[in-house]
């Protein structure tokens, strides 16, 4: 099996932006696009000087948010059984064929995981950086939001995830069961949404 190649940016290029967990500076988006590099995933997962770029989409339908639980069949063992507000994954070289490698990677992941086409309804929100744990130290989330009219109730990769819909108060109640990126997203943005 061929080693997965992931795209990211060397930390030195973006380090001055990584002083907060939730970053809203749009300049960082273009800096990432201008400095994108590739690395074998098994090396990138241990290389703290390289931030793998992860498009990370949260989906809202009326007053509820899509929540998924990562099963033990997912690749990233450090996140097994955690709840997540964000759907997404690594950017790969195939995504360079898109008009924008970040949104191209996200669109590919959504089709693979949910069978969902974004139809250009993505709204860029900001970035999540979490250097408090081993997963966060080597990843940077690029956060997008999408509002839909009808709930999604099924996934393509059933062995890797299960879906549910939560109101804000339910997320708050279960916040400790969520991965840290979802906690950061919730505390900095979702908990204040109307």
TrEMBL record:
Coiled coil: none annotated. Residues 48-188 form the Nudix hydrolase domain. InterPro entries: NUDIX_hydrolase-like_dom_sf, NUDIX_hydrolase_dom. It comes from the Bacteria. PROSITE patterns: NUDIX. This is Nudix hydrolase domain-containing protein. It comes from Chryseobacterium salviniae. The lineage of its organism: Bacteria, Pseudomonadati, Bacteroidota, Flavobacteriia, Flavobacteriales.
């Amino acid at each position: 099996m061929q080693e997965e190649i992931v795209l990211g940016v060397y930390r030195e290029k973006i380090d001055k932006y990584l002083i907060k967990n939730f970053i809203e500076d749009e300049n960082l988006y273009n800096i990432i696009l201008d400095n994108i590099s590739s690395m074998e995933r098994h090396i990138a997962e241990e290389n703290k000087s390289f931030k793998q770029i992860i498009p990370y989409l949260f989906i809202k339908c009326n007053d509820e948010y899509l929540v998924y639980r990562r099963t033990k069949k997912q690749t990233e063992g450090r996140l097994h059984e955690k709840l997540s507000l964000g759907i997404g994954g690594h950017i790969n070289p195939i995504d360079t064929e898109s008009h924008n490698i970040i949104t191209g990677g996200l669109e590919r992941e959504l089709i693979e995981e949910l069978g969902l086409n974004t139809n250009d309804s993505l709204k860029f929100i900001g970035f999540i950086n979490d250097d408090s744990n081993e997963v966060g130290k080597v990843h940077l989330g690029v956060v997008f939001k999408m509002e839909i009219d009808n709930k999604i109730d099924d996934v393509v990769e059933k062995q890797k995830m299960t879906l549910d819909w939560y109101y804000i108060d339910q997320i708050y109640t279960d916040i400790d069961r969520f991965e840290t990126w979802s906690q950061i997203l919730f505390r900095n943005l979702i908990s204040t949404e109307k």
